[in-house]
Amino acid sequence: MRSIAKRFGAVTVLRDVDLDIHGGEVLILAGENGAGKSTLIKILGGVHTSFEGRIQVGGEDVRPRSPLDAARLGIAVIHQELSLVPSMTVADNLFLGHPDWSKGFIRESRRREAARALVDRYGIGLDVARRVEDLPVAQQQLAEIAKALARQARVLVMDEPTSSLNAPEVQRLFHLIHDLKARGCGIVYITHKMEEVFQLADRIAVLRDGRHIGTALAADLPIERLLEWMVGRSLDQQYPAHASQPGGERLRLEGFTLAAGRQAARRPVDGVSLAVRAGEIVGLAGLQGSGASELLRGLFGAWGGGVQGRVWIDGREARISSPRQSITQGLALLTNDRKATGLVLPLSIIANVTLADLPRLARCGWRRPARERAAAEGVAAELAVRAASLDLPVGSLSGGNQQKIALAKWLLIQPRILLLDEPTRGIDVGAKHEIYERMNAWTREGAAILLITSELPELLALSDRIVVLHRGRITAEFPRAAADPARILSAAMGQAAGPVRDPGAAGPPSDGRGFPSIGGTDRSVSPL
Amino acid sequence: MNRDTSSAGARLARFWENPAARALAALLLVGIIGCVFNADGAFFKAGTHRDALRQASIFGILACGMTLVIIGGGIDLAVGSLLALVAVCFSQLVIHWSWPPLLAIPVCLLIGAAGGAAAGGIAAGFRVQPFIATLAMMVFARGMAKTVSGGMKVSTAVQNADGTYRYVDVPAIFRWIDSRILGDHLTVVTAIFIGCALATWLLLARHTWGRYLYAIGGNEEAARLSGVPVRAVKLLSYAASGLLAGVAGLCQAAQEQQGDPEAGAGYELTAIAIVVIGGTALTGGRGGIGLTLLGTLTIGYLEKILSINAVPEASRLMLTGIIIIAAVLAQRRRAT
Known about the structure:
The structure holds 2 protein chains of 2 kinds.
Chain A: E1 2-8, E2 11-17, E3 25-30, H1 37-44, E4 52-57, E5 60-62, H2 67-72, E6 75-78, H3 90-94, E7 101-102, E8 105-106, H4 108-121, H5 137-150, E9 155-159, H6 167-182, E10 186-190, H7 194-200, E11 203-208, E12 211-217, H8 223-231, E13 249-258, E14 269-277, E15 281-285, H9 292-299, E16 307-313, E17 316-318, H10 323-328, E18 331-334, H11 338-342, H12 349-354, H13 358-361, H14 369-382, H15 399-412, E19 417-421, H16 429-444, E20 448-452, H17 456-462, E21 465-470, E22 473-479, H18 485-492
Parallel strand pairs in A: 3-10, 3-11, 6-9, 9-10, 15-20, 15-21, 18-19, 19-20
Antiparallel strand pairs in A: 1-2, 1-4, 4-5, 7-8, 11-12, 13-14, 13-16, 16-17, 21-22
Chain B: H1 7-17, H2 19-36, H3 46-71, H4 79-96, H5 101-125, H6 130-149, E1 157-159, E2 165-167, H7 172-177, E3 180-181, E4 186-187, H8 188-206, H9 208-218, H10 220-225, H11 230-256, H12 267-278, H13 289-308, H14 313-331
Antiparallel strand pairs in B: 1-2, 3-4
Helix pairs in contact in B: 2-13, 3-8, 3-9, 3-11, 3-12, 3-13, 4-5, 4-6, 4-11, 5-6, 5-11, 8-9, 9-11, 12-13, 12-14
C-alpha cells in the first residue's frame, strides 16, 4: 500500500501511509484507538472504496471495490464484529457466497465434506455441522478464520481477534497463525495486548493520528520505543502506582450461587464467599466459564431468577433484586461489552452519562438539561473524553472514548462498590491509563472494587488480592505479593492453589497481610 | 445529490443527514404539488387548509401515541380498535345515558388508557412481542366495541319502549368538539391535536420518562443495567398510546355524531406510516414528535390535494402507497 490517504468529510483520518505485507510473516499493526488502523484495513478489505494512493498485490495495481472483490484478490479481513450468519451451520457459512451450486440447489453433503476437509487440513478443531449460534465465541472466531481460508486468502487481516478469547484459546489461535505463516500467508494483526505483539510479531508497523510513524523488525523495537511511537511521548510506567490502604469491610458474600434458568442443575456461580474492603481492589481471575462475569451480574441484581446466598453491604444485609435497587445501594456495574450492554449508542454523550443518575438530576421527574450538561461536562473532563460535542451520539466515538462514557455513567452516582468487568477491553494505552487513574481515585475515596480482566499483567498490577474462579467456585486466593501468572493460571484451570493455601488448615486462613479471609469450603478444588 | 467536497456542499450534506430536514423536504414537495395542482385555486383558500388539518388531526393524535411506543422499540396495532371502542362508549354514555361530558370524557379516556396498558402489560411483563400483544388487543377491543354497541352504530336515533325510534339532538359536547375557533380558522379537533403533540413532546424531550423511553428503544439491556425501570416505562408508553387513541375516539364520535363500532379500521397503519415518513426509526431510540408533526402534515395534505383534484379513491390509495415508500427511502439513514 502506497501513500494511502482517506478523508471522511472534512476529517482526514489517514495521510500518506505506506505498508508492505510480505508472505510468511506476521505484521503487527499498532496504534492507539483512532490512529487509523481500522480505516486502513477497511480500505484493504474493500469496505472503504474511495481513497487516495495505490494498492498493489503481487506487483499489480488493484483497487478492492467490495469485500468480495478483496477476497478475490486474496485479501481477507476478520473484523472485531464477526460476520457469520448465526442461524446457519459452520459449513454453510464457510461457503456462503461461493458458486457451489448444482442446478440452483446447494449440495449439502458435498459442502459439508469440503468444509470438514478444510478444517482438518489446518487442524482447526471445529464441528462444521453445528450452527454458529450454538458455538462459543472462540469457535466462532475460528470459523471466521476458516471462512477466510476457504476463500484461499493470501493476506489475512485480523482485528483484535483475541479480545473475547481465553488463554488456551489464544494459544490455539497463535498455533494456527504460525501454521498459516509457514504456509506463506501474510498476516496483518491488530492488537492492544503487549504480550501478543512480542509473541507474534515479525515486524511492527505503528500508526498515530492517521500517520505512518514507522515500521521495524520486532527484534529492533523494544517495548519502550514501541510505546513511544504509539503515544508520541515516553511512558515510563504502564500502570500507575496504587497505594492500597484498605479500610473496613464494604462487601461480603456468603454462599452466593446463581442457577441457570429454572433447571438448577447448571450453576454458573456456585457457593462463592468473599469479602472486599473499602479502598481495596480484588481481582477475579478465571478462564471462560469461570462464572466471574456472571458473579458480577448476579451481585448487581441483573441475573434474573435463581439467586441464592447472602450479601452484606457495609455490614448490613442487602436484598438486591434489580439493577435499580443495587444502584440506590451504591453499586455500579461496568459490563464487559460496552456496545451490547453498556451504552445506548444512538443517544448523546450527555444522555448516556446521566442515564443512571437521571432521577437525582431531575426535579419531580422533569429533566433539567442545564444541570445534566454541567454534570456530564464535569465527568467528561475528569476522564478526558475526547469529543467535539457532548451532544454527539455515543456510537460515533472511538472505542476508548466509548469506554470512558460507560465508566463516566457510574462516576455520577458516586458508587461505594464497583463491579468492573474488563474495563480496558479493546482501548488504547492512553485511555487505559486514564481508567487506571480513575480506579485509583475511587479506591482513595473508599470505594471497593471487584475487577475482572483477561489481561493477566493488568490483573496482577491493579489488584490488592486476586481470587481465582473455576467453574463457578473459588479455587485460590492470592495477595498481590504472592500472585504470579503460572499459579493463577493453574488455579483457574482447576488445579489446587499450591503453597499459598494450606489445604489442611481449619478455619479461615490469613492471606498474609492481616486480612481476615472467609470460610473454607468454597476454596476446595472444583470436582472435575 | 452529488458528493461535493466544498464547504457549502458539505454543509448541505450535513443538513441533509438530519431527518427533520428530509421530512421537511417531503412536506415542501407535497406543498409544491398542491400549488401546481391547485384545483382552480382551491389550494390557496384558507378553508382548504383548515379542512386538511381537521381531517389529519385524528391520525395525528394517534401518531403522537404511536411515536412514543415506536421510540421505545415497540409497535401498537390496537389504536384503531381502541378508537372505535371509545367512540362507541362516548356516544352511548352521552347520547343514550345522558351522562355529563365532564364525567363521560374521563371515563372514556380511562377505557382507552386501560386497553393500551393491558396490551403493554402483556408485552412488557410477559415478554410477548409487542406486535402480537397489540394485535390481540386490536381484535379484542374491536369485539368490545361491537358488544357495547350491539353491533350497530350508536347514533342519535334512540329506541323507545315500544320499539320505535325517535331522534334526539346532537349533544352539545359533540357539536363543540366539531366546531371552529379563532374566527373560524381552526377546528377544535386540530387544537386538541396540537395539545396532544405538545404534551407528548414535553414528555419525550423534557421528562425522565421520555429519556428512559429513548434509552430502552436504543438498547434495552443497557437501559436496564443503568437502573431504568424498563417494564413500567414500556407499559406507560402503551397506556399513553391507548389514552391518545381515546382522545382520537372522542373526536371521531363528535365528527361523525355517532359511535361506529367499525370506525378506525386501518388507522393504526396510517399512524405508523405518519411516524415513519417523519423519520422516527422503527427500530427505536431515534425520532421525535416534531418529525411526527411533519409526517402528519405530509400525509394530511397529500390526501387533501388528491381529493380537491377529484382523484378517485382507488388511485388515491395507490398513490399514497407509492409516496410512503418514496418517503421512507428518502428517510433511510445513509451508511457512510
